[in-house]
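Subject: for your reference before the review

Hello V.,

The reviewers asked for a structural picture of the protein, and I figured it would be easier to keep everything in one thread rather than splitting it across files. Below is the amino acid sequence we used in the manuscript, unchanged from the supplementary table.
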Amino acid sequence: MHIHTCLSPCGDWGMSPKAIVEKSRRMGLDIIAVCDHNTAENTGAAIRAGQKNGITVLPGMEICSKEEVHVLAIFKTLDRAGMMQKFVYDHLPGKNSSNLWGNQIVVDENDEVIAENFNLLIGATTLSLYELVNKTNALEGLCIASHIDRPAFGIISNLGFIPEDVQFTALEVSWRMSMNEAAVSIPGIEKFPCITSSDAHYIEDVGKVWTGFMLEAPTFDEIRMGLAGRSGRRIVL
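And here is what came back from the structure prediction:
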């Protein structure tokens, strides 16, 4: 549920949508989410590549709040992801320096380069955590606090706690910490469903860890039900 492409400035050039989908298929994954930093411009290509390989790809973004907290915003449709992208771009200052931060490459499902994105995708938006979460929820997306166990860009390290009035859908624990460790060391985690994701920036990391769900089909709506534990859908791993 958290994979970067070559569009993220910290993502390897080998992380094309086509390569990500092919690696996901080899790893036996049914559903993935592409979440580049502050953009969704490679998600359409990933969705089309997934359709050719039997992998459901959800369009998402990993957005950096002004408090420098990373949040995953994952959507049912490209249109909704596009609306979120416009909202983020309107509040994302600065221009990228490829010499400093790396190139930000937009590609199609066949690995053909379409464009280069010159927004400062590695930067923080001017949006508060509350604004990001509220906008994601207004667009009926899944709003997941990223890698809450990490010392960089995690909500615990940056805020010191999980605010009770922030309406997260779920929390993400990175591959660096087991769920058992997280349960005893992160205050407030017990109030939310939790997933684990690879946060892959290199192709060898795709499928490094994953979350198992009991679902009827690999769809956005079923994932939402699984996170909420409704109608027999649930997280199982």
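For the response letter, the relevant points are probably these. Helices lie at 17-26, 43-53, 78-89, 98-101, 129-138, 155-159, 179-185, 220-228. Residues 17-235 form a domain with the TIM Barrel fold (CATH 3.20.20.140).

Happy to draft the paragraph if you're swamped.

O.
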